[in-house]
Amino acid sequence: MKPQIKPRAVLLSKRANVFYLEHVRVMQKDDRVVYLTDTGADIEQFFNIPERNTAFLLLGKGSSLTDAAARKLADSNVVVGFCGSGGSPLFCAADMTFLTTQSEYRPTEYMQGWMRLWLDEAKRVEAAKQMLKKRLRWALESWSADAELLRWRVVLDDGLLRWFESGVDKAVTTGDLLSLEGAWAKRLFAKLAEGFKLANFKREEGKGSHENREDDVNGFLDHGNYIAYGYAAVTLNGLGISFALPLLHGKTRRGGLVFDVADLVKDAYVMPLAFSRGSSGVKQQVFRDELIERFHEVNILDRLFTFVEELSQEDL
Question: Whole-structure pTM over 0.85, yes or no?
Fold first, then answer.
């Protein structure tokens, strides 16, 4: 009898699929991972999840996962998260944000490199500065090429860019960088709110209201952030770097590094799309699909892997 040969999984940084599912049962069927929709119809409909080309899976309200499917997903290194309606809030669990797969053969050199810089205060601050500068460059690159932002005349002006870059260079401590980062985010929100004519916009995480366009934008920001957390979790899990070693976010939060890495893409992609789609009244599913497609178009997973890998090995 010939030994069964498993199909080769796609390299984590190149995977194309991200799933958000509600009211489904995820199970293994005929050596495949499938999900069964809860439609109430007489005929059950199964849909395939191509686990060897999937980065992460978000399971929303009314969803369940069998142990056989969990083993199959873990075998393909798929990260799983449980969340509320619309992708937020995230309820699960291990390592703060996601259920990560376990493997004795995960790479160790990136974790060792990250530990070296993390234990040295000066190196940790320098790494945080590099992360913020990368965040600035990606935001500038994305906003400058976004036709919707250009149509509404929303741009990152030179004065704002110089202010942020100068602030990063002058910062001495992590606290300095955190204060600067908070002020930067507020200025981006103000610029987008002004451009999309949302005069009453105020960032309110987890509000869950849909009374007006400002509420829709807040909801889209929440949903988009959790998708960004998924990409960050896949990156760190694939490189074998602990979520508990953040550069900026609180060191008492086990998932702090996930938030740091996710911030690289939130300014550049989540915020602009949340404002443009939230102000136009589209449904949550449309926004999520567009955001995931945008991330795929710009190879965001590959770029995150490359940046975090290089940062962990750099001699700061």
Answer: yes
